[in-house]
Amino acid sequence: MPNLRELLPLVCCMSLLSCAQTPSSTTNPSSTAASTISTPAITAAADAPVITPAPMLTEAEFASCIQTFSADAKKAGISAPIIRASLGKASLSKRVLELDRQQPEFTTTFADYFNRRVTEQRVAQGRALWATHRALLDRVEQTYGVPAPYLLAFWGLETNFGGYFGNMKVVDSLATLACDPRRSTFFTIELMNALRILDEGDIAPEQMLGSWAGAMGNFQFMPSSYLKNAVDYDGDNKRDLWHSKADAFASAAKFLQSLGWLGDERWGREVKLPRNFPFLEAGLKNHKTLTEWSKLGVTRADNSPLPQAEMNASLLVPAGHQGPAFLVYDNFNVIMRWNRSEFYAIAVGQLADQIAGGGALLQTPPIDAPRLHRQQVMQLQAQLNQKGFDAGKPDGIFGPGTRRALSEFQHSQGLVADGFADHTVLKLLGIQSAPASN
Ligand code: CA
Asked: How far is the CA of 238 from the centre of ligand 1 (A)?
């Protein structure tokens, strides 16, 4: 029933589309995405168990492993010249091994994450690029049903609109990770798929560059996503996700379509919560209709009522009750199939809205929220477990289970049960929350 859905805003601020700015690469989107192992097709790697320190792969082990892969590639039908030009020239990358072994020491706050990615400059650049590529983006939307602002938002977050693709040789990176026993299965599949892409002639081996984890081109596709979703949209018989904007946009849109994108729906929206809102109702897995959320006093951020609709939504408070609140819809889950991070999905949605003419967040996230060291998260988990709130085995990762346990503990203490580790609850649990230094 489309009339009951909260449809995309038809806002289109052409007057704002003229402020082109020079791209700036304050962050390195490629390495950011790869460091969370969650670019389009690295998603599966995020399911891999948490990694413990392992010995470095040696040159001898690498050489022997490459021999095996070369034989496997031959059996899989990859042509001999491609095997020689790719695996035949592959070298072990110590840098890739180091990056793969790095784990973030501190949790990232929503303010820190969001404010680095959804910037005025990026919004302005997105609007300018929309104006530049309007005809192409319209055509892509007609073909795949993904509106331009979302494609621009993914493009902005993944590679700063093509400003940085990563400059590591994909075959070296994938061969290194495939030969390293830690996540060999996943990366062996990606390596073989990279060889297939080369064999199909889309790109020459020396030009196949990407992130340290093998994510490629404007939208940082892993080889498996590339094989499934890359489209030759400009008709030159090559699927070139690096140099052809037509191919890149169409491929990203096709990928989103395959992940279940609902073309006429929003991702979600910022909302306002009433005083005494029952925060135990928050969380991605907790669905209610917009009508039910309205009954709990939730309004749009500007205080106007939510649409009275049967559409399902979940409520997120990524920076706790003092930060912004969001109701998120089915397309939010589609974004999370691209990258399994709530922060990422909110950033995509907000960037898309702002590129489409929307304003900044009305409730800005507090910037003094504590960042927790992994050890402090483990301590928090152990404390919650000890008090009878199941945070799972302490692993130093502040995930949904920990958040839930913390909410329940907060509730038991008469605190706002937002599952957010603020200074008050940390103090109550005896965890020192001095501001973390970089
Ligand atoms: Ca093409």
From this structure: 4
